[in-house]
Specification:
The chain is globular and about 55 Å long. The protein has 214 residues and is an alpha+beta fold. The protein starts with 7 loop residues before the first helix and ends with a helix. Strand 5 and strand 6 form a beta hairpin. The chain has a domain of 135 residues: NADH Oxidase (3-Layer(aba) Sandwich).
């Protein structure tokens, strides 16, 4: 039986990729601007399902929500498309577009190392009030979902999580993935660290929004 107890590999990676005075100043890696990675994963052949982009303001100040320490409400909640749109916007949505010579700069709801935005969000859900069961990719560039697979695939995630109760009873689940090279283009082997840092940052802000709703 394998366990996560042996930590030699983790320590080897940590020590091999941590910054030092010497590593920062002697790394020969340079950026290939002609091969700059796309800021989005694009499914060009799939039909977009536009998400609603207007909703009422919240009742709690953002700083109050961040400081909140009470436990989350455990009431059952079946999300509609508007609720899902809010969560997606506040985690990976584009909050501002700024044109510049040669292109357009995108500001996102959650920060990402190097502004490379290598974390993508997928929605896996059962039948919802206004959304069919399926596996969907969230496209921040046009604020839309694209169905990759119709049908209810939540059981696969339940099994992968070891029957985690929070996963087993969820009507909808978000899955974070990383296009590793989009970050490794700049950060090389440190990208494995950034997969977790950036995914954690992305998932934090929707938690504050949920507190604001209560």
């Amino acid at each position: 039986m394998t366990t996560n107890r042996p930590v030699t590999a983790a320590w080897t990676y940590h020590n091999g990729t941590k910054h030092s005075w010497e590593s920062v100043r002697t790394n020969p890696h340079t950026l290939d601007w002609g091969n700059y990675p796309l800021a989005f994963k694009i499914y060009s052949t799939l039909e977009p399902l536009p998400l609603p982009h207007e909703w009422p303001s919240v009742s709690m100040a953002t700083l109050s929500a961040i400081a909140e320490t009470r436990p989350e409400h455990n009431d059952e909640c079946i999300p509609d498309l508007l609720s899902l749109a809010k969560l997606l916007f506040l985690s990976a949505g584009i909050t501002k577009r700024q044109p510049y010579l040669g292109g357009e700069r995108y500001f996102r709801a959650a920060a990402c190392t190097g502004a490379l935005y290598h974390i993508d969000l997928y929605l896996v859900c059962g039948e919802l009030p206004d959304l069919s069961a399926g596996v969907y990719h969230f496209g921040p560039h046009d604020f839309a979902l694209r169905c990759l697979r119709p049908g209810d695939y939540r059981q696969m995630l339940i099994q992968a999580s070891g029957q985690e109760p929070g996963v087993a009873h969820a009507p909808a689940l978000f899955v974070c993935t990383s296009t590793y090279w989009r970050n490794a283009w700049k950060y090389q082997a440190r990208t494995y660290r950034h997969c977790f840092w950036d995914a954690g940052t992305l998932l934090y802000w929707p938690t504050c929004w949920r507190r604001e709703q209560h």
